[in-house]
Design goal:
Blueprint lengths: L1 H8 L9 E4 L6 E7 L4 E7 L6 H14 L8 E5 L9 E5 L18 H19 L18 H18 L8 H9 L8 E3 L8 E3 L7 E4 L6 E3 L2 H9 L8 H5 L13 H12 L6 H25 L5 H4 L2 H18 L1
Antiparallel strand pairs: 1-2, 2-3, 3-5, 4-5, 6-9, 7-8
Helix pairs in contact: 3-8, 4-5, 4-9, 6-9, 9-11
Length: 335
């Protein structure tokens, strides 16, 4: 196996042929568990045509820098040679535990008290991440430039151009929402490390103590910016039992379970813990939903249009985009 030979050439003492299994999830990257006799590893690589060496190097370097401050997997090696598997990739240590999925908390029955504590710990870990000084993580392979209002506007313009390329006849027109965000970008006074995809299904919880976080996964979208961006993105995916049936049909994480905190309580707890004002919250709430809409559009294109492996799930996702679009417009009217 080419990966085994490469690992040995890098000084990692792996022996024999590994048991290889594709990991669940990971719609923007492919991850494989490689179980050797003495090593339990995970190989992570981008989809073909979906990212190169710079992206892999940045993700690898960020997690290596974060490890003393935040629970992340232990990075092993980064491979720049595309001849090994067809793309750049990196290898990290496997973190055993429970990874929640759409309607299940890693296959276990979670008590209401534990579900509440999971939410509290999830929020506290996000707050801890946002308290890390981005400048302390910088290295030759990792540049974390602080965001600015002009940079955020450029990002929104870029997202709108991608939306124009991928929009289908039955999809929502997101240009008015994007333009509203561009016109209402608040002053960027806070610069924190952002995960930008903080969700229950990107967390490994301890199997013996399900409320304890063992690792935060999937750092490919990480950046620096106002921490309310992270909260806005988290709450855009946060489904409650009383939400519209379309939202519940396409939920990404088991935030509906008895005992889980609601969006308003999560917001209140975050603002209290960080002493932040809710002054700019309307912008970041709409920002999170807008980014969610763009994610749905990209996944619909990749799976329903191009015939990806989640084709059936994403075939009718355009219905959800219209509902979230309507929700955004309502928030804009009252902002």
């Amino acid at each position: 196996m080419a990966v085994t030979s490469w690992l040995r050439s890098e000084g990692v003492d792996v022996r024999g042929r590994p048991d290889i299994r594709r990991c669940d999830g990971g719609m923007s990257h492919l991850t494989y568990r490689l179980r050797y006799d003495a090593h339990d590893l995970v190989l992570r690589r981008p989809l073909l045509g979906q990212g190169g060496l710079q992206r892999m190097r940045r993700e690898f370097a960020l997690q290596a820098a974060l490890r003393p401050h935040c629970p992340v997997a232990d990075m092993v090696r980064l491979c720049a040679d595309q001849a090994v598997v067809g793309t750049p990739f990196y290898v990290m240590r496997h973190v055993p535990g429970l990874v929640p999925r759409r309607r299940s908390f890693g296959g276990i029955a979670l008590s209401a008290d534990d579900a509440r504590q999971v939410c509290i710990n999830l929020l506290e870990q996000m707050v801890a991440l946002h308290r890390i000084d981005p400048r302390s993580l910088a290295s030759q392979d990792l540049t974390l430039a602080p965001s600015s209002a002009s940079h955020l506007r450029k990002l929104l313009f870029h997202w709108l151009s991608r939306h124009a390329r991928l929009k289908t006849w039955n999809g929502s027109d997101l240009r008015p929402i994007g333009q509203w965000l561009i016109d209402h970008v608040p002053e960027q006074r806070h610069a924190a490390v952002l995960h930008n995809d903080w969700r229950l299904d990107n967390i490994v919880f301890d199997a013996a103590r399900p409320t304890r976080i063992r690792a935060v996964l999937d750092w490919e979208f990480a950046s620096v910016g106002d921490p309310l961006m992270d909260l806005g993105i988290l709450l855009s995916y946060w489904i409650e039992p009383t939400d519209n049936f379309v939202m519940r049909r396409y939920q990404w994480q088991p935030s509906h379970l008895p005992g889980m905190l609601g969006r308003e309580e999560l917001l209140d707890r975050y603002l209290s813990a960080t002493a932040r004002s809710a002054k700019d919250w309307a912008f970041y709430r709409i920002f999170g939903l807008f980014r969610y809409l763009l994610t749905l559009q990209e996944l619909h294109h990749r799976h329903a249009v191009q015939g990806g492996e989640e084709k059936e799930f994403f075939r009718g996702i355009w219905v959800l985009t219209h509902y979230v679009h309507w929700k955004c417009r309502g928030l804009m009217r009252h902002a």
